[in-house]
């Protein structure tokens, strides 16, 4: 019967989409271990996934915005700004530092309010916002410098048992966000807003309040990402995390998320972020010049999206079979 | 939404959003000269006209893409500029006879990037933002790979042209004005140009009205990248050779110029004249901040705030 | 007092106009508690508008709304009222249980998912026994029929206090026979326990089977309001039509046979083929949303899609009915909106000639009788009817030999309509072919032949002299075949 065949096709596509991030991660890990068996150790994993946690946290921020059907082109600049605040103000004037970070979160919330209230295109607004963040970061730290607070770098260097901190923390983040977005009652409404905003509004919810809350939460993850990055690199830099914007988008998509419709997967996105971090490490191992690494990142995103298009086509062909 | 005429100057200005960009440019010029103790006004105009020409060319392409409707942005322009600046120098190889082939190669490479973007958007169903963003990264790698360490200077004739002035007006500014005129004519007086505006206002209605939506889209993305290609070649000629970070600032700059110049961010209404004023304004803004002693930080901050302000006031999306 | 207590819904004197169109001209409606009201009517009768006023999505111009004896402010919705309209209110990315949570804001805290699932399971079991659905199924993965089951069940679901009034608008349109039977049985049980239901359907047999009270609407008014007992299908059809048929415009057709311009084969679900000869005005009739627009769009797309079922011998242009979504370019002038399809012929050299464009626009302004001092004014400065005229001009000013009309006269004033009818007749006489989908019976009288649609296929064809309201209604409301 026609209608159920279409449903079958969608389910098949859904299964493939969900399996993709795990497969990609396993494939990449396997390739690395094959190339370098010594990497299969605590030290090796630590080296490979050293910088994964900031990327994971930035990905969570991006994923929240994508859930609503928007896109955040400013997350990279924001994370850089946080490293600058953390490296200059936070150590010497903790209260002011915290206040600045909270103001940053407030800025994100205000952006969400503006986009929602005036129905503005998120892309252009966040592109402008990225230069606001960048400008503030450059004013604070014209050249890389500053020093991370001792407690932060100490925290990031914690030696956790069995697996490196990066892995434990990533699993923890995936768990928390999964529970909050996918399992909680409130998170469900947020996802519903991405799927059918009018239906959610008709049920009596305030779309504006939902959007502001989501953007504020994205800001929180941006702050966490910046602090984690600062703890790892120990100095701030206005241009440190620019590439996090594309990385976070790629990770969400690799993890099975879609740009519209409220379909995202926190665990998939975390896996995607880990995979992309591995990919960057692999490129370095393979001695690919850094110039080409930029292109490979773009190529990865294209490949992932192309694969998804193929999956959709398989799903549709199955429906017609 | 009727065109209720408000009386007098305010009314005439309100009907012409591009005018604001020229007024802003003029005010910024006045402020800069004032900050400089009243000196250097003429030189400033000359520099503004020359430097903003590049922004005009690249922004015209961005303007066409944005006019196609919501979701259409070309984020590959900076990479295309980097690529074409390197490519043009390579082809020209410091020989006057190779100037034209060098320009053609630059524009051609740009159009190839544009078609690559379209392929990603259509065949792989990638949203234009992501498609142009990732294509841009790939193109940037290509540009870096054969542009790094390139120390080829532009042919002397080409460099002279880039620096030339006609009655005090930089030749590049004339090129930019010519491009603006052509763009305006194409948008207003050709079937394809009308199609772009139609698609931007209502893509569904455009399809029903017999417009070949996908073909027009292809042409627009190719044109945008082609213009970026031309910009790269001219930049290399003006700067005495290519450099890989030449295109970097053009990502936000082109969008800022398009938005501030009065083009409708939701698509369907391009403001060609405004591109000129906005490009001048952006250059003079930097000059003013530099004269006031402010560094790149305040400039970026201010640019970002201005863009957000302009969109927030003018950019209410149509239902 | 007692009168109000026994009523679930009381609409009094509801009036609503959209510009020049009077959608509701003073409607009174009463739904008693423990009763099912069947609401029927042909296109444009006002059923959707009335339900919009009841649900609070539309504010009436005059009249009052009372639900369970309480006054309801315009634009507000009584919490005991649930509505299932035809455009879906489910979030396709969420599961069935999660969709219940969205509407039941009191399902919170630990274990909410189980509770939401239980709420939906209870509702589904009650309304659609044997449904086979689970709370963890993603709505987007379900077929349209099962989605409709979820939506209907959700409307009846509750966390302790059942809804008092449920409005169902064409609820069985996507349900299979078994599910439809389940729903009808449930409706009887629901009203038996004291609830009230407003049941809107074009399947008259269903309405007669479950309604305690039957209301027929026509032209924004209630024309029949009586108990369902003893009502027959024919009686309903007769009530929906006009008592005295209006004078018909004579449609004179040329005797000679002309080449066939359009031919559309039957759809996968059956029905007869549609043909249109050159110079013919062919009408598409039947209830709104039963396949007419889809056919027009298939014909329009035929040259590009190479649709094997469609044969088209000339260029086709469309006059859309939803001008906001499908027709108007809101930032452009009237002139540009009119000439957009004819631009290729307005060039001198490679560029468009503004003088010729202006001349064409002015000529059509005169021809269409557009009320505007200047065709250079923005299109949105025109009234709705005049905007529609401009869209007509767009199609007619082009070189298209076949003009497809997608209910373009909806919401247009009478004067404009008459002008356009005359124009259509003149153009047809000059050799243009028209495929005219209309939801208004009177317009069918201007057609040479009429094809009536039902549930996506053509159920019958009527020649000009056989086009009566009765004949069209019968074909529109043909008895339901086995699912």
Description:
The complex is a heterotrimer of chains A (321), B (319) and C (483). The mean pLDDT of chain A is 89. With 321 residues, chain A is an all-alpha fold. Chain A is built from 14 helices and no strands. The longest helix of chain A has 34 residues, at 2-35. Chain A has one domain (23-312): ABC transporter involved in vitamin B12 uptake, BtuC, CATH 1.10.3470. Chain B has 319 residues and is mostly helical. Chain B has a domain at 41-248 and 266-272. Chain B has 14 helices and two strands; from the N terminus they run αααααααββααααααα. Chain B has helices at 8-14, 18-35, 41-67, 77-92, 99-123, 128-147, 156-163, 171-189, 191-201, 203-208, 213-239, 250-260, 272-291, 296-314, and strands spanning 165-166, 169-170. In chain B, strands 1-2 form a two-stranded antiparallel ribbon. Chain B is globular. By secondary structure, chain C is of the alpha/beta class. The longest helix of chain C is centred in the first third of the chain and has 16 residues, at 112-127. At the A-B interface, α6, α12 and α14 of A face α6, α12 and α14 of B.
Radius of gyration of chain C: 25 Å
First and last CA, distance of chain C: 46 Å
Shape of chain A: globular
Oligomer: heterotrimer
Q: H/E series of chain A, N to C?
A: HHHHHHHHHHHHHH
Arrangement of strands in the largest sheet of chain C: 6-7-8-3-9-10
Q: Give the C-level CATH assignment of chain A.
A: Mainly Alpha
Helix tally of chain C? 16
Given helix and strand content, the structural type of chain C is alpha/beta
CATH topology of chain A: ABC transporter involved in vitamin B12 uptake, BtuC
Summarize the structure.
The complex is a heterotrimer of chains A (321), B (319) and C (483). With 319 residues, chain B is mainly alpha-helical.
Secondary-structure blueprint of this entry?
The complex is a heterotrimer of chains A (about 325), B (about 325) and C (about 475).
Chain A: H1 2-35, H2 42-48, H3 52-67, H4 75-92, H5 94-118, H6 122-140, H7 150-156, H8 165-183, H9 185-195, H10 197-202, H11 207-233, H12 244-254, H13 266-285, H14 290-320
Chain B: H1 8-14, H2 18-35, H3 41-67, H4 77-92, H5 99-123, H6 128-147, H7 156-163, E1 165-166, E2 169-170, H8 171-189, H9 191-201, H10 203-208, H11 213-239, H12 250-260, H13 272-291, H14 296-314
Antiparallel strand pairs in B: 1-2
Helix pairs in contact in B: 2-13, 3-8, 3-11, 3-12, 3-13, 4-5, 4-6, 4-11, 5-6, 5-11, 7-11, 8-9, 8-13, 9-11, 12-13, 13-14
Chain C: H1 2-5, E1 7-18, E2 21-32, E3 36-41, H2 47-55, E4 62-67, E5 70-72, E6 81-84, H3 96-103, H4 112-127, H5 144-156, E7 165-169, H6 177-192, E8 196-200, H7 204-210, E9 213-218, E10 221-227, H8 233-240, E11 260-264, E12 274-277, E13 281-286, H9 292-305, E14 310-312, E15 316-319, H10 323-326, H11 334-339, E16 347-348, E17 351-352, H12 354-368, H13 384-397, E18 402-406, H14 414-429, E19 433-437, H15 441-444, E20 449-454, E21 457-463, H16 469-476
Parallel strand pairs in C: 3-8, 3-9, 6-7, 7-8, 13-19, 13-20, 15-18, 18-19
Antiparallel strand pairs in C: 1-2, 1-4, 4-5, 9-10, 11-12, 11-14, 16-17, 20-21
Helix pairs in contact in C: 3-4, 4-5, 12-13, 13-14
